[in-house]
Amino acid sequence: MYKYVIKRLLITIPTLFAVMIISFSIINFLPGDPGRIILGIEATPEAVAMFNAEFGLDQPFISRLTSFMRDVITRFDFGISFRTRAPVIDEIMSRLPITARIASMSVIAAVLLGVPLGVAAAIRRSTLTDASLTVAAMLLTAIPGFVFGLVLIYIFALRMGWFPTFGDQTWLHFVLPISTMGLLGAGSYIRFTRVLMLETVNQEYIKTARAKGAAEPRVIWKHAFKNACLPLINMILLSFSGLLGGAIITETVFSINGLGLHILTAVRNRDLPVVTAGTIVLAAFFLIIVLVIDLFYAFIDPKIRAKFSSS
Question: pLDDT band at residue 307, thresholds of 50, 70 and 90?
Answer without folding.
Answer: low
